[in-house]
Amino acid sequence: MSRQLAARAALALFALALPALGQDLKSFEERTTLHKLANGWTFILVERPTAPVFAFCTLADVGSAQEVPGITGLAHMFEHMAFKGGPKIGTRDWTSEKKALEAVETAYAAYQAERLSPKSDLKKVETLLAELRARQQEASSFIDETGSFDTILAREGATGINAMTGPDDTRYFYSLASNKLELFAFLESERFLHPVFREFYQERDVVQEERRMGENSPFGRLLDQFQTTAFEAHPYKQPTVGYMSDLQSFTATDAQKFFDTYYAPSNLITVIVGDIKPAAVIPVLEKYFGRIAARPGPQPLRTVEPPQDAEKIVVLENAAQPIYLEGYHKPANTHPDQPVYDAIDDIFSRGRTSRLYRTLVRDKKLAVQAGSFSGYPGTKYPNLWAIFAMPAYGVTNEQVQEVVHAEIARLQNEDVTDEELTKFKTRTKADLLRNMRDNQTLADLLADQQRLYGDWRELFHYLDRIDKVTKADIRRVANETFQKNNRTVAMSKTRTSATKESTR
Fold this sequence. Notes:
Elements: H1 3-28, E1 32-36, E2 42-47, E3 53-60, H2 74-81, H3 94-116, H4 122-140, H5 149-155, E4 159-165, E5 170-177, H6 181-193, H7 200-215, H8 218-230, H9 244-247, H10 252-262, E6 268-274, H11 278-288, E7 312-318, E8 323-330, H12 338-349, H13 355-363, E9 367-376, E10 383-391, H14 397-413, H15 418-436, H16 439-453, H17 458-467, H18 471-481, E11 487-494, H19 497-502
Parallel strand pairs: 2-6, 7-11
Antiparallel strand pairs: 1-2, 3-5, 3-6, 4-5, 8-10, 8-11, 9-10
Helix pairs in contact: 1-15, 2-10, 3-4, 6-11, 13-14, 14-18
């Protein structure tokens, strides 16, 4: 069977599966329970007894967009700290360790004040740093590695233990045997009941190294420039890992204030999917997570990005391969037009039959890679739709740009084909069907929808919105969005010997 016939056959099979998917969605609510604790913590429980395991996702509605100057990177830093345990986890002697950690913070405050003083005394800085190191060593002596958060989970058979921080949220997840659910409830509630910032400044050094790795990546540096150029006011302009000066300055005291503000139970959502029974699970959740006192949730973000009124261009010169990136401001992903942007992404860059691949890579051979993406750097607030390309050897960014703009103009002036639109709708529904089969992915998706819309059912309502996307919608959105004054271009160019000479 040819590749084209195989693709058509696969699409046909997925189309046949869609009525069954509709039936699954209809019955999904019967297997799903939403339970909200008195302290405001929201739990979504999905029964799926296919195997004696469960996966979960705890989503904190806080990311780098909630940070202010001076503490950028703190959301990501707290994610690291959440694995350090608590007064009952990871310590040999909590009473003594608590005093030692307080001594560390006192020593750091003295060191920091002198280091940042306009009349800093270098010798005094060195003395205070030595005192800090001594206090850190003393505090570290109380750590019990055999009883650490990760060690306990690994010993009990947990898999996929991880967490991640983005501009909009921070999430924690792993999978565990169903008969370990009470262990999960104890461990997860403990780290949000009273987090202990063990080895805070040592871990901060680790995060600084992550920042350096990003700075050493040509694409990472270009994304930084693209982001800070595209956004003038909104915190989306800030790197999630943080600015280096902030990573060298924020404190454990700052982290505690951040936790107190943004990790209020009302700002947390946990989705549990697997072999569970809500009637048995809810009392366990009440017992452990209910210990956490209610407190006011954070205030909503105030800053709104103003409309862009002129094209912005940033050029980064280095010794690496050229990279082309261009983006346009678009509404938040909760906007009714989001399915239209998803359609454009699918048509432009999904697979080897997509427009960008066919034109830039296959036919004109101007790029070795090309694609588009929506919702950068986040989805909760108005964000960017973008196109990227890696020019082929000897090809300039300007040559790639010409073809990119021609493809955009084509989208603005001509209807997409029936086949392109049908493929998008069929593939999107098939993607949901696949994602629903995996407990962890489903937990992530449901948590996203609950955060964005306040209702996990929006995951399924999205299918109705997909069905309603028309060719006219695509042309309308393309004309509204892809305008020169709404465009930010970032190009990475190979530094020439002439350029090197001129900078000496």
